[in-house]
Amino acid sequence: MSTDANPKIGPIQILAADDHPLLRYGIATLVGAEPDMEMVAQASTGQEAIEQFRLHQPDVTLMDLQMPGMNGIEAMIGIRSEFPNARIIVLTTYAGDVQVMRALKAGARAYILKGRLAGELLETIRAVHAGQRRIPPEVAAELVEHAGESGLTEREVEVLRLIAGGNANKEIAAQLSIAEETVKRHVTGILAKLGANARTHAVTIGLRRRIIEL
């Protein structure tokens, strides 16, 4: 098996999971020019990624976080539940610290911003295949900046998402079947944890840090 502690001898076998065909083509072009790498499979959804991983058991998997249906983090959890030593590199457009933490908790070995694929992909693949971990400096800085902060609870994330949707406290209370006073307490907690001075400021921070998405 290619995902054990001692990868097999031969080209590094790679699975690329991303819902954009052009990006997969670009990755395949980069990989195809390297004598020590081989693209063995591609996937456009999280479910396909799991199926292709089972079929090919690649040495390194490149995983987009934002895909239709099952997202990249869910696919990573699915893969690693069957293949705990799978080496997975996350590909994303965003450096939000919450998203990074979710990916790392799900077992990602490295994190590459898509804007830097051309310059960093090949080196990162080799590093991860050799057992190393890689996080871009700006992503690591985000993690350090917010390391001491209390994370939002699931309910607070729900409330923040509804605030982002333009809902007033009364509307949020109705949708979540809770008292309006409870919503107000959640809003106060959200503002304090995010260091925000207003609801719109909290939404901006939540979007930047990928706590919520529109």
Average pLDDT, to the nearest integer?
87
The oligomerization state is: single chain
Uncertain regions spanning at least 5 consecutive residues: 1-7
Spatial ordering of strands, largest sheet: 2-1-3-4-5
User: What coarse outline follows from CA principal-axis ratios?
Assistant: elongated
Considering DSSP H and I runs of 4 or more, what fraction of the residues is helical? 40-55%
Per DSSP, what share of the residues sits in E-state strands of 2 or more residues?
Answer: 5-15%
- Structural class by secondary-structure content: alpha/beta
Query: What about the largest sheet?
Result: 5 strands, parallel
How many beta-strand elements? 5
Element pattern in H and E:
EHEHEHEHEHHHHHH
| Rg, nearest Å | 19 Å
The total count of helices amounts to 10
**End-to-end C-alpha gap:** 40 Å
